[in-house]
Write a structure and sequence with these properties.
This protein is an alpha+beta fold. Helices cover 24% and strands 34% of the residues.
């Protein structure tokens, strides 16, 4: 099975549109704002169509690897892709790929997640957004200070250029809640929200709901589909997302791998 590097955004889009929510990250990364950070690899079926796809996204401090596809040759495909993978990476893989990833890399750290999706027509806003403010580059220091307590975040300052980061400040604690996007693409009509955190001393006040409501109101002025990830055991977050109208789409696994190093 020959692994090919792919650059045809039209072909990639056609493949990914089979499940827009499961492939939301990858669709968003077709946007020129993110495409420069991407390396796409694929294998083809006997008829010449794409069968499996792997994306290495290098726009974060730790590269992220995504996989998509259902071709039976996934094990061979992944083994052949090891020559192009970085020594350390975070991964998002669909449930049907996890056994192959486990057998190939033996990752020490991974967890099951839900991918949820929401169409604009089903959006139901909640929460008082009067305290929510738009965040920009002048807020970078405060944002980084808040995220320092949550090392699993996927934030990089360039993401503020989307204009889709919102937060709430407390007079004593400073920035205490934030919500933003991982990717947003008007061209491909999709966004993935994330990096949602609230300071431990400010929880239980509806701040995350307010920030998320404002974020979704703004996003749905640009695109019609929003996706997100949530841990399966995070019941408070799941309840909040369902109040907005989000529905479960699929299970996937998120984790880290480091060559020869146990990831804490």
């Amino acid at each position: 099975m020959a692994v090919q590097q792919l650059t045809d955004r039209g072909e990639l889009r056609e493949f990914l549109m089979r499940d827009r929510i499961a492939n939301a990250y990858l669709l968003g990364n077709l946007d020129p704002a993110y495409f420069q950070f991407c390396r796409w690899y694929g294998s083809r079926t006997a008829s010449g169509e794409l069968g499996n796809l792997l994306l290495i996204y290098r726009g974060l401090s730790l590269p992220v690897v995504f996989m998509s596809g259902s071709d039976p040759g996934i094990e061979t495909f992944l083994r052949e892709c090891t020559t192009v993978l970085p020594d350390r990476f975070h991964f998002h893989v669909l449930e049907n790929h996890m056994n192959t990833v486990r057998d190939t890399f033996s990752p020490p750290d991974f967890k099951p997640m839900y991918r949820m999706g929401l169409e604009r027509s089903r959006f139901s806003t909640h929460g008082d957004t009067s305290r929510v403010v738009r965040l920009g580059h002048r807020d970078t220091a405060a944002i980084m200070a808040l995220y320092a307590h949550y090392p699993d975040n996927f934030f990089e300052p360039y993401q503020l250029e989307t204009g889709l980061y919102f937060g709430i400040r407390d007079p004593a604690l400073g920035l205490v809640s934030i919500a933003g996007v991982h990717v947003v693409s008007e061209e491909h009509d999709v966004a993935v929200i994330g990096n949602l955190v609230t300071h431990r001393q400010a929880r239980g006040q509806g701040l995350a709901t307010a920030c998320t409501a404002r974020l979704l109101e703004e996003i749905f002025e640009r695109v019609s589909l929003v996706a997100l990830n949530v841990q399966q055991d995070n019941e408070p977050a799941i309840r909040m997302y369902r109040h907005f109208g989000f529905e479960f789409n699929n299970v996937f696994f998120e984790g880290q791998y480091a060559l020869g190093v146990k990831v804490p």
